[in-house]
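Quick start: what a row looks like.
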Amino acid sequence: MRDYQRSHIKTYRDLRMRNNKGFTLVELIMVMAVFIVVIIAISYTFENIVRRSSQQAKSATSQIEGIVGLEMLRTDISHAGFGLPWTLGVPRAAFPEVANTPVTGLGIDGTTFANFKDSAPRSVVAGAMSSGSFNGSYYLVLKSALLALNTSSNGRFGFVNYSAGNKSYVHTVNDATNTDIRPAQDQIINILSSFSTTGAQTKQLLMKDNSATGFYYQLPANSFSLATVDNAYKPTDASQVILAYAISDGSALRMPYNRADYYINRDNATISPSCNPNTGVLYKAVAGQQSGSDYAGIYPLLNCVGDMQVVFGLDRPVGSGTVSYWDPKIAAITALSATDLVDQLKEVRVYILAHEGKKDANYTYPGATIAVGEFGLGRTWTATELATAFGTDWKNYRWKVYSIVVQMKNLGGA
């Protein structure tokens, strides 16, 4: 009996020892190996998610910039010609729009887009840069009463009434109390809208003389009185329709309209670090009305831009009602007068090459070429040209061509 008990106790102790021995070294190594593989897989997946999230965030930011900046450009193009005269009341030298270009090194002279002597301003003009970082990209100039820097100068006041008692007033549209009028501030131009005996319409800038101040006046302190304004700016009979525009305020005018220039430039201080290092920023530069202030404001519209092309849609043959598309820098188009543009320019198309988001080593652009333009106009970038301009890794960016198509509605002046 005692032998049996001893044997049973020994067997129980052996079992306890075997149950308490734990994992072997091989088992631990295998578990750790499996654990490391799982951690690596999770880390890789997490890294992928973070990278894609960052790329999508950059793409979303680019898209928002595109919507805001390009909508501003589209709106400005649609307003081109608003408030512009077709003829001048008194012959005079060209208005001194600007004396230089917004920045140096663009490869184009901004002064060449000023209106010609003794003629009205051309509402939309464009030319290609001939050198610089964006050689071949276009420089676009718009002119309108609605391009003022000061938003309180709202572009259009309305009209000037006829008064046999020499009491002509400026009246605003849809504002019976004339609260939009700012006496002793707004600089005003008046345009006589009339028709010839043949039925042709014209819009003539009223001018006292051909001096630097002879084409505008400041609204008098009495907001409802134009009694102190020269008779040259008032209707001579009840049949005349005179439109009044506020161009600027608090300073002398250099021109009877406002001007804005659009171009691409590379400025390392403003361009996003996520952009391809050889791209630039699409800028809007507004010409100042104050003497000695050629460009009173320069604003970035869109980042990561590589090219901008412009195409004009004109009524050709003239009077046919058929729109054909032309390069705005060729001689046949640059020779058009302001009146020609009013009659013939039907569309302005702007094509902008830019990329969304940042460089993505896991992405490859699907095409070998990128067309910036239509109708055989603009520019088609080959793979070699893209590599030369934007580096051999250009395919690792998500390139996109933005197209802005505007049917011109305001070339008639109002």
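That is the whole record. The chain has a mean pLDDT of 83. Residues 25-79 form the longest helix (55 residues).
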